[in-house]
Amino acid sequence: MTRSVKKGPYVDEKLLQKISKFKPENAPVIKTWSRDSQIAPEMVGFKFGVHNGKDFIEVMVTEEMVGHRLGEFSLTRKFVRHGGKMQKEIEAKKKEAEIASAQAAKAAPAAAEKKK
User: Fold this and answer.
1) What is the mean pLDDT of residues 3-13?
2) Do residues 32 and 64 share a domain?
3) Domain that holds residue 47
């Protein structure tokens, strides 16, 4: 998504018009499909609903985001974890161990009170 220096940054005009109507403190979420629009300093403090192809992902613009594109903060692909059957077994054992340790932690104070 590069753009030549001579052309300058691309900021969607409709977004700038929508922003000019509100103040950052009390602005609603501004929905947009303009993922290729760069984040301008005027946008800091606003919440944008950036479309990822299915839903609008809420993006709160901060100073560090200036110069980036809106689409960078609204991912279009969902990561499905690696591994298959073995990975599920490992995670199940890990979860069982966590439950057992939590139950042991609960039982320890109760056992200490019974000894008194």
Assistant:
1) 87
2) yes
3) 13-73
